[in-house]
Amino acid sequence: MQVTRELFNDVMVPNYNPSEVIPVRGQGSRVWDQNDKEYIDFAGGIAVNCLGHCHPALVSALKEQGEKIWHLSNVMTNEPALRLAKKMTDATFADKVYFANSGAEANEAALKLARRFALDVYGDDKTQIIAFNKGFHGRTFFTVTVGGQAAYSDGFGPKPAAIDHCDYNDLAAFEKLISDKTCAVMMEPLQGEGGIISPNNEFMQGVRALCDKHNALLIFDEVQTGVGRTGALYAYQDLDVTPDILTTAKALGGGFPIGAMITTTAIAQHLKVGTHGSTYGGNPLACAVAEAAFDTVNTADVLAGVKQREQLFRDGLNAINAKFDVFSEVRGKGLLLGAVLNHKFEGRARDFLVASTKHGLMNLVAGTNVVRFTPSLVIPIEDINEGLARFEQAVADVVNG
After folding, report:
1. Active-site residue 136, yes or no?
2. Residues 175, 207 contacting (CB under 8 angstroms)
């Protein structure tokens, strides 16, 4: 069978419009397509491939577990899931872990737990969920409604109720919304899809304090920021704010589908037997790969390396900007970075992505105005330099029309 981009149009539901490029193999931070053209990967599968492609530790874990046991169902537990959960609780504020298959599922579990907790402890009135405009929390109907982008949630009929939004970093607006009827506040500790927006310190401290005042649970969606992406194992650890519930996915499996919700014993006890579940959640194959990814990332060397690489990206992007004057700023943290287009190139982020692909570079956008970079956390320095050289050629193409 000949596999071409045209086949996509014949056999796939049209909710995606993928590039003409079909990658067939990857090694480290380089990828080759069907024609054996090489690309440098600054996209990382949207902050997923935290150790690049075919990292030996992950390949080895997959092969080893693949010859032991793949799936059991949650009628029985399994060793990889228990080992991974223990490592996650040892390394974070949490005592308990719930495994799912994706970030959306982890967020769905977090939201259901928050509602269940509030009803059990405080009664029927405490149902409001507050989230933030431009936030993104997944594509299930509950999570997409909590996400602050109407374009993703409109057009599917009546939405889940008691969900309100205000602007990120606007503490005064948040204070007006929150009350004793609020059961949970869901936020990203650095907004990803919404444009790579960092929180300011006063906002973070204020949200935590107001949640405490009103007995509302603070849920951190660390699907994109988690597992080393910002230079800490989890972003909350650099912010001096601890959430009540945290969700993690994407980089957790280094490319293998897995998600998790983590929380304290006191909160976790409200998801008693039968209240929530997942057929594949905690699958031994996924947990074995995730354990290898978690162990590899959660080291002083790798986390310090993220901050070193961030500086190389910032310096490189600033040098390109000094030549071409296309960005108003480079924002974000660690290796979750966004180059914000200035007024002359407003709304043209996709043009930079298309030009990059032509020059053998994979990157991303975050909205129409931000070019996003989420490469491997261990991307070799020479690949950063070569990728930035290719990006400079792409920028030149866009600038010169």
Report:
1. yes
2. no
In this structure, which amino acid lies at residue 95? Answer: D
Among 238, 270, 297, residue at a domain's last position: 297
Contact 284, 81 (CB under 8 A): yes
The one catalytic residue in 41, 132, 221, 391 is: 221
User: What pLDDT band is residue 62 in, cutting at 50, 70 and 90?
Assistant: very high
pLDDT computed for residue 241 by the predictor: 98
Mean pLDDT for all residues in the chain: 97
User: Distances from the Cα of 15 to the Cαs of 12, 18, 309, 324, 347, in angstroms?
Assistant: 8, 10, 34, 35, 22
| CA–CA gap between residue 210 and residue 37 (Å, rounded) | 53
Residue 141's pLDDT is 95
Q: Which domain holds residue 344?
A: 5-56+300-399
pLDDT for the residue numbered 227:
98
Active site annotation includes 256: no
Predicted TM-score of the model (pTM): 0.97
CATH of the domain at 314: 3.90.1150.10
Q: Could you say which of 126, 250, 313, 345 is catalytic?
A: 250
**Which residue reads 């259901």 in tokens?**
112
Is 197 found in the same domain as 73? yes
Q: Same domain for 215 and 123?
A: yes
Confidence at residue 139, expressed as pLDDT on a 0 to 100 scale: 97
Joined together, the tokens standing for residue 59 give 């390949």
SS (H, E, C) 254-290: ECECCEEEEECHHHHCCCCCCCCCCCCCCCHHHHHHH
Which residue type sits at 106?
A: A
Concatenated DSSP letters for 15-81? T----S--EEEEEBTEEEETT--EEEESSHHHHT-TT-BS-HHHHHHHHHHHTT-----TTS--HHH
Q: Is 344 a catalytic residue?
A: no
